[in-house]
Amino acid sequence: MNDCIVIIPTYNEIENIESIIRSVLSQHKPFHVLIVDDNSPDHTADKVKLLQQEFGGRLFLEIRKKKSGLGTAYVHGFKWALAKKYDFVFEMDADFSHNPNDLEKLYHACHFGNADLAIGSRYVTGVNVVNWPLSRVLMSYFASVYVRMITGMKIHDATAGFVCYKREVLEKIKVDNIRFVGYAFQIEMKYRTFCQKFKITEVPIIFTDRTKGVSKMSNSIIIEAVFGVISLRIKKLFNTL
């Protein structure tokens, strides 16, 4: 069986879904893809079902009843991937903000390097973001600075959503314990990995904002991240993380 699964959560991504699936599955490395769709009203899941006829055995679909947040979608995907015995589990957006050509860089960092978690980092070599307004770049960049100050993690892109985990990491951190859903979910995953003393490596990428579809960012997600970091640090201090 293939050792790599790319988890892509979707909600109303009909404009991007076929292109992103074809791009991932056309990589030199024969990745598998799991779409976790939150019952998209635009029929994203129906398009995936059609593509499954073409990519049988490499493209999988899990449909949830309603939109329940990015974090819970990934946890659903993690549990599915662990049950299927994949060795390398990837997170990736559906909107091409993450370049499928960079998947192999993350894989190499974990498989041939010594990383347990490889992060596709926007900030490890400067600011590598295209088409974002300056206000959002600053918010994202300083969010990672804030996370480093509070948690002690030496990670430049703590909110990154383009990553590769070795299965041992997901097994050790017990994904059922993950509680946050947005930016804070990405921070929590990295912090739990860090607290378990796994090796974390940042791989430089160029992040390009979506050109199709609608961003899922909201003020509540930002607020969750700000206060979630403090909550994680307190839990760690009292050994309740």
TrEMBL record:
One of its GO terms (biological process) is glycolipid biosynthetic process. InterPro entries: DPM1-like (IPR039528), Glyco_trans_2-like (IPR001173), Nucleotide-diphossugar_trans (IPR029044). Residues 6-173 form the Glycosyltransferase 2-like domain. It comes from Flavobacterium crassostreae. It comes from the Bacteria. Gene3D superfamilies: Spore Coat Polysaccharide Biosynthesis Protein SpsA, Chain A (3.90.550.10). GO terms for molecular function: dolichyl-phosphate beta-D-mannosyltransferase activity. The keyword Glycosyltransferase applies. The keyword Transferase applies. GO terms for cellular component: membrane. This is Dolichyl-phosphate beta-D-mannosyltransferase. Keywords: Glycosyltransferase, Transferase. Belongs to the glycosyltransferase 2 family.
